[in-house]
Automatic annotation (TrEMBL):
Belongs to the prokaryotic Ku family. One of its GO terms (molecular function) is double-stranded DNA binding. Gene3D superfamilies: 2.40.290.10. It comes from Niastella caeni. One of its GO terms (biological process) is DNA recombination. Keywords: DNA damage, DNA recombination, DNA repair, DNA-binding. Residues 52-179 form the Ku domain. CDD domains: KU_like. This is Non-homologous end joining protein Ku. The gene is ku. InterPro entries: DNA_bd_Ku70/Ku80, Prok_Ku, SPOC-like_C_dom_sf. Homodimer. Interacts with LigD. With LigD forms a non-homologous end joining (NHEJ) DNA repair enzyme, which repairs dsDNA breaks with reduced fidelity. Binds linear dsDNA with 5'- and 3'- overhangs but not closed circular dsDNA nor ssDNA. Recruits and stimulates the ligase activity of LigD.
Length: 263
């Protein structure tokens, strides 16, 4: 793995030198855009809007439109704004992870210690394990400040990037009509939830869409005809909700699906 950031975790007066690595990789297929006429690959160019000419990377700068005029920013300018934030993940408090709404979660990263930070790194990891807490702090990556939580995962520390409160849109923008649930339907829905309940296991979920898409690609490559499947309508307003719930419960009782974990 290639590190995407190097710096340190600020833990009280202790600085732990670390490297940051992406913890995820895409599971979807990498599809190219092609010209419909001859299947030539589509390329994107960085073009000057006035001259129409392509601009080389080394001649591209970044700027902010302030009152109709661009203020150009250099790499030095980014470093001058709170330079410590560009190199330190500063843990300011510790909380129970269950207190953090999953709405705030964004991207996970692995943290690995530099050679001179192994002892302090392991100490922080072990202390988080013992207390059941996660560290909350801030850091800057690619010129954007983010909140993060740091927690132990197996024998390493994981940094989860989380969003600022102001980044979550207000639900008042949505118009959802309030209705009171029918007690019998509610009881049936709870029974269905309990029936499908169990311990979380991520291995239950696979990216089957990409797998099926790859099968289709291979069949098309062989010139085989592919029939379009009929979409099964799951919910219909004309059907009785209670009957749908009963049918769902009955289907599970006949076998298949996720089993409830015995306590």
């Amino acid at each position: 793995m290639r590190a995407i950031w190097t710096g340190a975790i600020g833990f009280g007066l202790v600085n732990i030198p670390v490297k940051l690595f992406s913890a995820v990789q895409a599971s979807e297929l990498d599809l190219d855009m092609l010209d419909k006429k001859d299947h030539s690959n589509i390329k994107f160019k960085r073009v000057n809007e006035k001259t129409g000419k392509e601009v080389a990377w080394e001649n591209i700068v970044r700027g902010y439109n302030l009152d109709g005029h661009y203020v150009v920013l250099t790499e030095e300018d980014f470093q001058k704004v709170r330079p410590e934030k560009n190199k330190i993940i500063n843990i300011t408090e510790f909380v129970d992870e269950t207190e953090i709404d999953t709405m705030y979660y964004e991207n996970p990263y692995y943290l690995a210690p530099e050679k001179n930070g192994v002892k302090a790194y392991n100490l922080l990891r072990d202390a988080l394990e013992e207390t059941g807490k996660v560290g909350l702090g801030t850091y800057v990556l690619r010129n954007k400040e983010s909140i993060c939580l740091i927690k132990p995962h197996e024998n390493i520390l994981v940094l989860n990037k989380i969003r600022f409160g102001e980044e979550i849109r207000d639900t008042s923008e949505l118009e959802v009509k309030e209705t009171k649930s029918n007690p019998a339907e509610l009881k049936m829905a709870i029974a269905l939830i309990n029936q499908l309940s169990g311990e979380f296991d991520i291995s239950h979920f696979k990216d089957t869409y990409s797998t099926e898409l790859m099968k289709l690609i291979r069949l098309k490559a062989k010139g085989k005809k592919i029939e379009k499947p009929t979409l099964r309508v799951v919910h219909s307003r004309s059907q009785d909700l209670m009957e749908q719930l009963k049918a769902s419960l009955g289907k599970k009782e006949k076998g298949g699906g996720r089993r409830k974990t015995a306590s």
